[in-house]
Amino acid sequence: MNEDKSLLRPEWRQWLAENLALGVGVEEVEQVLVGAGVSLEVAREEIAAAGQHPYFQACRQVARHFGWLESLMETYSALRAQDGGRELEVREGLTPEEFFRRYYFGHRPVVLKGAMKDWPAIKKWSVPYFREHFGRVEVEVMTGRDANPEHAAQQDRHRSRMPFADFLAMVESGRRTNDYYMVPRNDNWSREGLSPLREDLRAPEGIIDPSLMADQMTLLLGPAGTVTPLHHDNMNILLGQVMGRKHVKLVPSYERHRVYPHRGTFSHVDAGAPDLVAHPLFAEATVLETVLEPGDMVFLPVGWWHWVKALDVSASVTFHHFVVPGGNTHLDAPP
């Protein structure tokens, strides 16, 4: 069947080729297409046409080259599962030595309790506090996110500037929404107006660089309902929850083949409500979960996939400059 005369929408043709290349069975692909309203005859014609297309043949050959790597990752995943890899560890009073040995170098996430108890921000930060001390400061935030499913990857299209007081009024309106959010790429730390907020933070001793330079950390602030879609960062991150609660889901870096990567560091999967018909391999993913309370920190290893949803009006900070021999670890993002 000529692609230009295909009866399938482009997104379904992409889904078809991707799943066949990933090794999903023909009968299973047929069932999904028929369930979506495609006739069995058309489904079979499309599958046959895809298999004969030279682009798809090249795609299959590339998939075979990567098959050995996925097999290795499957073995690693099974080994880690036997070593407690299906539980998100929660620790309190963790020494820097053990943090680096078991978690940073061990490529394991961990929730840290009590690591923020000396932060003035824990007692001071609130919407009224921000308004009283910084309300007139002009800030940059992301707006109009709900209208664009690709907002996380197309952030330059959503930048807005406004007085901080106006954004705070939106945040405390009581709406549960993902439409507006102050995210790390807004880079408000580096602007003079909000820089005094950094004085309310403390670097976890022996783990994070105590200089707390603006380019070594970020601020996130928004209403209940904000969502950071499933993605991974190209560096190790330590996230501290100052205000409100956040629901966090993590998937290991070595299960990349189960999260349907998209735009390099993002995933096609909505981890809040995964569609296992469209993304069946996600059913096999190891998903670790936690709810961060104010004062909790979570270590997100480089390459680990994570999804985050605010359950309340929320303020978080992240650090990415660790005190480690040999410097920090970064990951070159795949295309």
From TrEMBL:
Check the record and name the PROSITE patterns matching this protein. Answer: JMJC (PS51184)
Q: Which SUPFAM superfamilies match?
A: Clavaminate synthase-like
| Coiled-coil intervals, chain numbering | none
**Segments forming domain JmjC:** 192-335
Q: What's the protein here called? A: Cupin-like domain-containing protein
Species the sequence originates in: Corallococcus caeni
